[in-house]
Structures are given as structure tokens and as C-alpha cells.
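step=predict obj=GTP cyclohydrolase-2 n=202
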Amino acid sequence: MTIRYVESSRLPTPWGTFEMHGFEDSANNKEHVVLTMGDVRGEEPVLARIHSECLTGDALFSLRCDCGAQLQAAMHKIAIAGRGVIFYLRQEGRGIGLLNKIRAYKLQDCGADTVEANEALGFGADMRDYSILKPMIEQLQIQKIRLMTNNPRKVKAMKDIGLPVVERIAHQTGRNPHNAKYLQTKKGKLGHILSDEADEES
Ligand SMILES: Nc1nc2c(ncn2[C@@H]2O[C@H](COP(=O)(O)OP(=O)(O)OP(=O)(O)O)[C@@H](O)[C@H]2O)c(=O)[nH]1
Ligand SMILES: [Zn+2]
């Protein structure tokens, strides 16, 4: 495995102080971050979010997707629980990278949906590889998780790397008029479990 643990530090946030753990992947020079709160080791399942980088949603307040709202909601829920983990994976644009995501957005501006846009650019609908989580989980001694996600692929991916998901917790927030079609495509083509009801409070 090409993932190496580098260092940890404190990360104060509006929701509380996390511990931030840095990892590097020598295969592609990607730098990944894991935030933990409380003692995540041991038998007791850990409240967890596996979050793929979305520069536009997480840092630039984009309303094209639900990423920023989901990240904040996860930090909030973990702070309330006092214990949890967020894997912040540098798999921008479902693994196609930022510039290709901009290309995909341009195609979506012209009428394609998020899956059609990826495919028109020669990519699969979702190019992410979750096996990189295995060394991170081992380093942090996490044994079981309760996963905040609407994406059944993430649950299956954890099974594939041998990390029990004892519960999937729906994580639906951030719906707005700009991302309605995107969320509909996630549900219809990518298999996300999304209700048409209003979002949960976060
Ligand atoms: N290629 C592409 N990527 C997008 C688009 N919109 C958002 N993304 C990326 O999709 C990814 C969303 O990842 P996550 O927040 O982990 O969410 P998810 O797999 O949708 O599942 P949840 O756990 O239910 O949120 C991020 O990497 C975003 O950059 C798009 O239109 N095209
Ligand atoms: Zn996003």
C-alpha cells in the first residue's frame, strides 16, 4: 500500500476541536486528511463520514451540489456525539479531478446530467477508489463504524476492505433549486437513497 501516515495536530472549528491526521499517497502525491474527535479506537462503533473532496462545494459555497452542507452537518453531528471521524479524501469530482469536473459542469450547463457529462469526457460515472481507507483505519485503530451517507456504494466499499458498517445513517441536507436535478440523477442513476421529503435538520 502506498499510503503513509505523516503527522497529527489539533484543528479547532466552529463545531469543536478535532484532531487532524495527515496521510500521503506516494502513488499519486495526493494528501489526505482524517479528522477525529474523542477516542475512536476500540469496539464501540464510531460515527463516521467518508467525504470526497469538492473544492467548489466545500470551500467556494457552490450550490451545484450538496457537499458543503453535508460536510458541515457531519462535523456538527460528530461534535454533538463527542466522538467520530471524517475521512476527507482528495478524490475531487468523484475521482476525475477539479479541471475535469469544470469540464463536466460545462456539459451540464448545456443540458447533460452528471453521469452523461462524465461519460462524454471518457470517464466512468464514479471513479473513486476507497481501498486507500484501509491503512488510515489501521493507523487510527478504528474497528467498526456508523456511516453517515446516502450512497450504498460506500457501504459496500467498506465491506470490501473489511470494515464493518453496523449502521447506515441517512445524511440528506443541502437541497436547493440549483442542485435539484443533480440530486435526482444521484438517486436515479447512481443509486443514492434520497427521499423526496424535505431535508433533515442539521
Ligand atoms: N464528476 C462530477 N463530480 C461531482 C459533481 N458534483 C459533485 N461532484 C463530486 O462528487 C463527490 C461527492 O462526494 P461525497 O460528498 O463523498 O458524496 P456521495 O458519494 O455523493 O455520497 P454521500 O455520502 O451520500 O454524500 C465530490 O468528489 C464532488 O466533487 C459533478 O457534477 N460531476
Ligand atoms: Zn460538491
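step=describe
The chain has one domain: 3-91+128-189.
step=end
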